[in-house]
């Protein structure tokens, strides 16, 4: 038996790595670099260290949300409530962040707690009811928006402490804090997805829920964790956004869920679940950021900006699905 | 044979303790469905309470208490909330009943709300229109039912019984005039629009362009929407700084939220001292910024007066007393010099 | 190039390469009108790729396909379907929510001339006539989801007939059919060939091939081996041609010592599915579960494994009553289950061989890529899983190899008892023999095996004891020496 194995395996062994790793990821990377190259040829203002830092800073909040929703989509779900969570966690954090009240850990902790609870509530309803996550989170999206208005009484929560404002607006060794946080969370989320048992289970649950169950994976636990995690990341995004614009806005984050989902899907996460990577999502978010920055630099009218963005989103997904079928 | 595999796996088995996340105790299971429903209904109650702006303790008027129905553009907008709060206060003072509903920016909803006011036979209607054209049918319906309808804050194409508000074009004229004066009629300006196509955005752009025409040396080098949003405006300003750097002499933002976003981006880039920022609305945050000197000026639209005048007009109309067909509450430029008048 | 007038379909020099590997290498096939032509070969021999080229799902690199004297333009599924080549897929591709009639006319709905409205009544009538001609009692208005697998297959054939197909490809059509249903299928095939329809028949069941096939073409490793009249071959010769070596004993003798009781159920019942089932299985023993389709075999397995609940009775592991509410509980109790439906319950298609194999055995917080790869490699060697490597996605493997991945996953969780539900369904004879050997190896290692199979020779050849079920009730427990095909069938037939 051993002998038979060795011959069959060694014949094809060398080619498997190149064969398996998706061309899709490289296709996306290629599209990204082509757009960057084009922009730097058109305008000299694009390819400067400062502008690139600004792009990454602007992208970071969407990227955090996209990381969270990537977990959910890979597990076969969807979370439409992340934009509302940004608002809820933002105003909660801001309420505790006035100068000379609490140390900065308190607003962060309270914001995070709000996000985790909100996410857990999503997970709870999704796992305990037969209602599709699309509907559940559509509902909690509205609930969240309402909660944000209730907590803030419909008004922005302003006058925040300097230490709180440093989180999203400061710099460490010349690098904006948002970029540092983005890098740390990107690494963290990548490890969680690719190097942990939980990550493997997330792929399994999204790839074939019934087979995952039959393999002894407890679906409800995995889903609970995934939605809670998404809530936590949305809370971080909410806290950082509040800090960046130095005010907690009850209507902040409107439509953010769509940008985040777009980033994940552009990045190769399949809406049917089971595939996707954090690297892809990061590139997806950067792509959106680069395009929006580039169009601003070129002073393209806002009407056309929306059209261009839509075309690029569809283009990226078409490109990706073409690669998917080629592989099969 | 497969013995090798199992022994190998065995080491995999014992190497790690039980998974951390796996150990999440089954606490969640204990939360019952009833507790969820309970929580939900609390939420619903809360949201219900905070929006009913009725007054139950009015004194007895001449027999029956007057009822005024009000439909507001959006109770998520701070300015509108301020207008409404004043209306509420005024109604309480006058001892009338005010029923407020939120149109949530939907003209269709607004028309339906006015229809329901008509059905309830209110004595007067105050409408804070969502859209110029789409909210017009509401006016026609109220007039047909012989119920006086007062537009507050913005206009519809159908003429209502009375209009109380301010002219948005005027606010932009004031803001842009301030910029022109400050720059001596010469320099580069960027403009941040609200949501493209909304009445306020269209009028504020119109007003700004009127002034720009008077000053040929004042150039509009870029304009783009910031969607009324502070975070979006901040990103937009960052990108403009990359694009134009120190060429920008002034920023005109259609509202204070965006103006404050621009201020934040300029401050971060160390350019605030060299660039004038002016916006409209005079929200508390903006007044604080004017006080600090980071925002050069804002334009005060008098929410209190709009609110109180609206109720005043509504009562007169309901009682069939003579009333002004048009009450224009003037805008006021707010700078460091006259700030104290506006800070409460 | 063959220009023989008799040939309705003539394929020559067909080559198809996937990322450098030749899946088809200069393959040929000559199909006569009205014949049943068996296409034989092990898994991975290239049969599926060949058929995918024929129906236009794949475009070949080179080669010629002459259909009814014309060069067949490859690569257009609809075009080829219209020209008259239909395929009955191994995995049935019906739309479960639509009715039988709607499925038959799917994509070719008859519409009234004026408005393009669907003409339901006419469709239902046509479908009804067609099914009647085939001697079937299926109602055309029944939603597809209420049909049995066999009935669905018949509907697929009806669809091909209504499509006026002159070539029908059948890929493992009997894998889910009972003997009676197989007889119906063969009768229909006879009718079709009488009318001049040619059948390309793919199956791993030797007896079927020799019953029905006129001609046999053998492929091996993507290459054409031989075409011969069926009458000139016997099973041994055919297997030798397919495998390239001779397989002597299909069923190895189970000499493992029987140990203590590992698993038992008492008074086990699930309403509507099975009632009062009692049995025990011991270490090193193979317990066969025999019965017709719908006898409740799979339902019992699913209930033991925690996939479904049960109403009455209890499960005992090593004599102790256990609580099993989910597969996770079952796995923890040392129960392994290889499902009959490996697509739905077996594996995660987009995950790699390694990730699938280790899925039930992961512990701790972090994964152990190195150890997992080693484990996967050694299991792949032991089970002779043919893949490009441990990182290849399981979806790209052949059915037999996918099955082995699922078995590997179950074994890796170190079960004390393994339930194998139709473990050899749809896999080739070489892989079957390997699975039989594996079952033997399991019992030698002291594992108890519960074997569910619709193939009586398999049950008879491998089981120490056989539990016969009929309509959800247990009708006999036979020892190996008492059991024959006839006795099993007698107990398995429904009592009036």
Automatic annotation (TrEMBL), chain A:
Its main location: membrane. Keywords: Cell inner membrane, Cell membrane, Membrane, Transmembrane, Transmembrane helix, Transport. It is found in: Cell membrane. The chain crosses the membrane at residues 26-46, 52-73, 80-98, 104-127, 134-152, 172-193, 224-241, 303-322. GO terms for cellular component: plasma membrane. It comes from the Bacteria. GO terms for molecular function: transmembrane transporter activity. Pfam families: BPD_transp_2. It is a multi-pass membrane protein. PANTHER family: ABC TRANSPORTER PERMEASE PROTEIN YPHD-RELATED (PTHR32196:SF21), ABC TRANSPORTER PERMEASE PROTEIN YPHD-RELATED-RELATED (PTHR32196). This is Monosaccharide ABC transporter membrane protein, CUT2 family. It comes from Spirosoma fluviale.
Automatic annotation (TrEMBL), chain B:
It is found in: Cell envelope. One of its GO terms (cellular component) is cell envelope. Transmembrane segments: none annotated. The keyword Signal applies. InterPro entries: Peripla_BP_I (IPR028082), SBP_2_dom (IPR025997). Pfam families: Peripla_BP_4. One of its GO terms (molecular function) is carbohydrate binding. Residues 71-319 form the Periplasmic binding protein domain. Keywords: Signal. Signal peptide: none annotated. Belongs to the bacterial solute-binding protein 2 family. This is Monosaccharide ABC transporter substrate-binding protein, CUT2 family. It comes from Spirosoma fluviale.
UniProtKB/TrEMBL annotation, chain C:
Residues 9-246, 257-496 form the ABC transporter domain. It is a peripheral membrane protein. SMART domains: AAA. This is Monosaccharide ABC transporter ATP-binding protein, CUT2 family. PANTHER family: CARBOHYDRATE TRANSPORT ATP-BINDING PROTEIN MG119-RELATED, D-ALLOSE IMPORT ATP-BINDING PROTEIN ALSA-RELATED. Keywords: ATP-binding, Cell membrane, Membrane, Nucleotide-binding, Repeat, Sugar transport, Translocase, Transport. InterPro entries: AAA+_ATPase, ABC_carbohydrate_import_ATPase, ABC_transporter-like_ATP-bd, ABC_transporter-like_CS, P-loop_NTPase. It comes from Spirosoma fluviale. It is found in: Cell membrane. CDD domains: ABC_Carb_Monos_I (cd03216), ABC_Carb_Monos_II (cd03215). GO terms for cellular component: plasma membrane. It comes from the Bacteria. GO terms for molecular function: ATP binding; ATP hydrolysis activity.
């Amino acid at each position: 038996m051993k002998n038979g194995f060795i011959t069959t395996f060694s014949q094809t062994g060398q080619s498997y790595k190149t064969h398996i790793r998706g061309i899709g990821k490289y296709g996306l990377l290629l599209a990204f670099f082509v757009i960057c190259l084009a922009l730097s040829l058109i305008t000299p203002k694009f390819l400067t260290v400062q502008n690139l830092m600004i792009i990454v800073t602007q992208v970071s909040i969407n990227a955090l949300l996209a990381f969270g929703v990537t977990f959910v989509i890979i597990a076969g779900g969807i979370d439409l409530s992340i934009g509302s969570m940004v608002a809820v966690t933002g105003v909660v954090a801001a309420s505790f962040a006035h100068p000379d009240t609490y140390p900065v850990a308190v607003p962060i902790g309270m914001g995070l707690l709000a996000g985790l609870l909100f996410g857990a509530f999503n997970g709870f309803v999704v796992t305990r009811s037969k209602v599709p996550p699309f509907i559940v989170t559509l509902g909690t999206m509205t609930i969240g928006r309402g909660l944000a208005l209730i907590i803030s009484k419909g008004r922005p929560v302003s006058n925040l402490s300097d230490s709180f404002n440093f989180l999203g607006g400061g710099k460490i060794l010349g690098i904006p804090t948002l970029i540092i946080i983005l890098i740390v969370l990107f690494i963290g989320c990548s490890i969680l997805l690719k190097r942990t048992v939980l990550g493997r289970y997330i792929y399994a649950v999204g790839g074939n829920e019934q087979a995952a169950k039959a393999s002894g994976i407890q679906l409800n636990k995995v889903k609970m964790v995934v939605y809670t995690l998404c809530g936590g990341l949305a809370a971080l995004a909410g806290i950082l956004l509040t800090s960046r614009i130095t005010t907690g806005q009850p209507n902040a984050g409107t439509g953010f869920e769509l940008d985040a989902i777009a980033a994940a899907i552009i990045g190769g996460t399949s809406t049917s679940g089971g595939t996707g990577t954090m690297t892809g999502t990061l590139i997806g978010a950067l792509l959106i950021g680069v395009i929006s920055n580039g169009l601003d630099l070129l002073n393209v009218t806002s009407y056309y900006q929306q059209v261009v963005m839509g075309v690029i989103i569809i283009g990226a997904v078409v490109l990706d699905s073409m690669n998917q079928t080629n592989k099969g | 044979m497969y013995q090798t595999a199992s022994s190998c796996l065995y080491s995999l088995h014992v190497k790690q303790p039980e998974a951390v996340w796996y150990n999440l105790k089954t606490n969640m299971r204990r939360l019952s469905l009833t507790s969820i429903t309970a929580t939900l209904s609390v939420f619903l109650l809360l949201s219900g309470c905070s929006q009913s702006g009725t007054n139950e303790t009015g004194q007895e008027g001449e027999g029956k208490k007057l009822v005024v129905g009000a439909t507001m553009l959006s109770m998520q907008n701070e300015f509108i909330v301020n207008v409404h709060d004043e209306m509420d206060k005024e109604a309480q003072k006058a001892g009338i009943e005010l029923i407020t509903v939120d149109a949530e920016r939907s003209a269709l909803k607004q028309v339906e709300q006015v229809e329901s006011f008509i059905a309830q036979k209110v004595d007067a209607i105050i409408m804070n229109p969502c859209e110029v054209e789409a909210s017009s049918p509401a006016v026609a319906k109220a007039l047909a039912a012989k119920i006086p309808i007062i537009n507050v804050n913005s206009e519809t194409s159908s003429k209502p019984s009375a209009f109380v508000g301010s002219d948005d074009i005027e606010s932009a004229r004031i803001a842009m005039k301030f910029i022109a004066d400050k720059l001596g009629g010469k320099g580069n300006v960027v403009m941040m629009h609200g949501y493209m196509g909304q009445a306020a955005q269209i009028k504020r752009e119109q007003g700004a362009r009127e002034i720009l025409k008077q000053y040929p040396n004042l150039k509009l080098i870029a304009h783009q929407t910031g969607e009324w949003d502070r975070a979006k405006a901040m990103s937009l300003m960052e990108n403009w700084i990359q694009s134009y750097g120190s060429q920008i002499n002034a920023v005109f933002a259609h509202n204070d939220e965006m103006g404050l976003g621009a201020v934040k981006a300029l401050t971060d880039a160390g350019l605030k001292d060299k660039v004038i920022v002016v916006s409209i609305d005079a929200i508390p945050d903006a007044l604080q910024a004017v006080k600090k000197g980071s925002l050069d000026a804002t334009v005060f639209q008098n929410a209190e007066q709009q609110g109180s005048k609206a109720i005043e007009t509504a009562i007169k109309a309901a009682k069939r007393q003579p009333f002004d067909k048009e009450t224009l509450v003037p805008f006021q430029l707010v700078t460091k010099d006259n700030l104290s008048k506006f800070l409460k | 190039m063959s220009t023989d007038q008799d040939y309705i379909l003539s394929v020559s020099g067909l080559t198809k390469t996937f990322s450098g590997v030749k899946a088809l290498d200069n393959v040929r096939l000559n199909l006569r009108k009205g014949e049943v032509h068996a296409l034989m070969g092990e898994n991975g021999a290239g049969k599926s790729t060949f058929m995918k080229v024929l129906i236009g799902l794949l475009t070949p690199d080179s080669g010629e396909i002459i259909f009814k004297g014309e060069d067949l333009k490859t690569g257009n599924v609809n075009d080829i379907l219209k020209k008259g080549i239909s395929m009955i897929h191994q995995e049935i591709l019906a739309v479960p929510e639509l009715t039988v009639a709607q499925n038959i006319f799917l994509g070719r709905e008859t519409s009234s001339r004026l408005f393009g409205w669907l003409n339901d009544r006419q469709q239902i009538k046509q479908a009804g006539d067609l099914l009647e001609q085939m001697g079937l009692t299926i109602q055309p208005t029944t939603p597809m989801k209420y049909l049995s697998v066999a009935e669905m297959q018949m509907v697929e054939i009806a669809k091909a007939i209504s499509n006026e197909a002159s070539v029908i490809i059948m890929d493992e059509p009997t894998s889910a059919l009972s003997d009676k249903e197989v007889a119906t299928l063969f009768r229909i095939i006879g009718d079709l060939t009488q009318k001049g329809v040619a059948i390309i028949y793919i199956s791993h069941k030797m007896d079927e091939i020799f019953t029905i096939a006129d001609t046999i073409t053998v492929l091996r490793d993507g290459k054409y081996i031989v075409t011969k009249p069926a009458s000139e071959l016997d099973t041994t010769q055919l297997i030798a041609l397919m495998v390239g070596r001779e397989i002597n004993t299909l069923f190895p003798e189970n000499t493992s010592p029987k140990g203590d009781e590992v698993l038992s159920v008492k008074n086990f019942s699930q309403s509507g599915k099975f009632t009062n089932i009692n049995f025990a299985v011991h270490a090193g023993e193979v317990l066969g579960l025999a019965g017709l389709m719908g006898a409740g075999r799979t339902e019992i397995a699913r209930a033991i494994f925690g996939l479904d609940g049960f109403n009455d009775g209890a499960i005992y592991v090593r004599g102790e009553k256990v609580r099993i509410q989910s597969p996770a509980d079952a796995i923890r109790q040392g129960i392994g289950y290889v499902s009959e439906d490996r697509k739905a319950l077996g594996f995660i298609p987009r995950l790699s061989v390694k990730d699938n194999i280790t899925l039930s055995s992961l512990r701790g917080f972090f994964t152990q890529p190195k150890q997992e790869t080693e484990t996967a490699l050694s299991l792949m060697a032991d089970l002779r899983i043919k893949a490009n490597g441990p990182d290849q996605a399981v979806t790209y493997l052949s059915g037999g190899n996918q099955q082995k991945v699922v078995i590997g996953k179950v074994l890796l969780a170190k079960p004390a008892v393994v339930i194998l539900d139709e473990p050899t369904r749809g896999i080739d004879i070489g892989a079957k023999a390997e699975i039989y050997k594996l079952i033997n190896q399991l019992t030698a290692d002291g594992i108890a095996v519960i074997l569910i199979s619709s193939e009586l020779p398999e049950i008879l050849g491998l089981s120490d004891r056989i539990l016969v079920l009929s309509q959800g009730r247990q009708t006999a427990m036979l020892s190996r020496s008492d059991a024959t095909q006839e006795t099993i069938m007698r107990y398995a037939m429904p009592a009036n």
